[in-house]
């Protein structure tokens, strides 16, 4: 909304608001050379025959789809994809429900209860503890609890998102007038109904931000699967790329086909939801 | 703020306490355990004894550990400065009156979406094959070897890090620039204020809060650098590109230094906290002054 207001404002301006072609040209050239070229290269190598690698950047003489089939089999793609999808989807759903619920209870009771105020600062200060700092003992503990698998790591993701998400949701909930909840209580709703029927739907924009950030985190995360998921049947797509890197060795075409298989879902989602994603990430950081 | 009177509805406890307990068990407890083990000689299994500050002494004197701290700081400082300068320039370009603004914005944000590990692998290929090929064809000896195998390997890692981090930082600066009212510039131009002065006297003070966000997040992220290093050099050649995170991972899990690396992790934690607090203090003070 800000933007449309500004662009109409710009149109009303005078000569200086003509299109700046120099800057446009520079930005287009830089985008092609530095962002699109490496992506183009990834696609081209993934499609090429090994004998066609003399001029790496040329379009393939004939497209070798078998690269994908071979990479698919070699890395056990369907299994790794299922694992990653499970972690990602379950994490997003449960993060949204449980973290918003906790943030709601904390935000609404901070002013009248020391316990909830303490919990707020507890979660917020935990943002300062990077994963690398607690991973050594965590791995020991996770294997003792039998959490070194897909389900276990999903639970950990949901819990580890709490500090950031409490911060994000809390900022949003503060802006929701309590009058709405009071009206619902007068109508006979209990706290759970108030939350799920009144508050939860209002928080949609923040759910979108949290969902995008959680999704990006789990889909692209490498360190946590690396230290927790040693059983090949439990591994994620990112981890599989690392594990199979040695086996690909100089079979670049297979390696790049495999990378592309992992990047493709993200690229497709980005093409369709870029506006949401960009605004979601912005509001997540600028809040 | 009263919703149900002075007494807190028990439902609110149910909404928070169970997940808070889980958080304590799986986040706070491992952290505290790490602090505890840092004062022992535990190897990750078997018996252990208290050893006092021995592990910390080791951390501060072992050349591999101190080397990794020096490298990580050098890397984090270089990356923070370069990423913030470049992303601010990029954001100003994207915020000016250009064609294809939304398309360009989407393209420049794309690297944020892609996993760091795979980006690292792709650039591995570029550094190992494309750049040397280019260097040989044009007779530039500096480019004709794989930089990741040389003493300058860290520059390769720096390039990849910048390539990916620009996306997020640019987005934040862009959000900041869009809050600046164009009328201010028009007024400044009428007063004959030059471009450079306009930037330092008007633009920068107005987007200072966004600068703070970027600085804090950048430094923290770069101090933790892990994925791109595992993908590109594995910490080598030798230990030249071993960051603190890589060292904790390698020595802690495979090198039998569980307790020593726990101490290292505690030191890393303190470093991150102290740097974040100093940054917030200094940058917020400057914000106040500028406004």
From TrEMBL, chain A:
Q: Name the major location.
A: membrane
Could you tell me which InterPro entries the record lists for this protein? MetI-like, MetI-like_sf
Give the coiled coil ranges: none
Membrane-spanning segments: 21-47, 84-106, 118-139, 151-173, 194-219, 254-273
| Record keywords, A-Z | Cell membrane, Membrane, Transmembrane, Transmembrane helix, Transport
Can you give the residue ranges of the ABC transmembrane type-1 domain? 81-273
Q: Where in the cell is it found?
A: Cell membrane
- KW Ribonucleoprotein (keyword) present: no
Q: Which Pfam families match?
A: BPD_transp_1
Which PROSITE patterns does the record match to this protein? ABC_TM1 (PS50928)
Report the membrane topology from the UniProt record. Multi-pass membrane protein
Q: Which family does it belong to?
A: Belongs to the binding-protein-dependent transport system permease family.
- What's the protein here called? Carbohydrate ABC transporter permease
Lineage, please? Bacteria, Bacillati, Bacillota, Bacilli, Bacillales
UniProtKB/TrEMBL annotation, chain B:
Q: State whether keyword Membrane applies.
A: yes
Where does the sequence pass through the membrane?
Answer: 12-32, 69-94, 106-127, 153-175, 206-226, 263-283
The record's keywords, sorted A to Z, are: Cell membrane, Membrane, Transmembrane, Transmembrane helix, Transport
Family under the similarity heading: Belongs to the binding-protein-dependent transport system permease family.
- Protein name (database record): Carbohydrate ABC transporter permease
Membrane-protein topology: Multi-pass membrane protein
Localization in the cell: Cell membrane
What lineage is this protein's organism placed in? Bacteria, Bacillati, Bacillota, Bacilli, Bacillales
Q: Does the keyword Transferase apply?
A: no
Please give the chief subcellular localization of this protein. Answer: membrane
Which residues are in the ABC transmembrane type-1 domain? Answer: 69-279
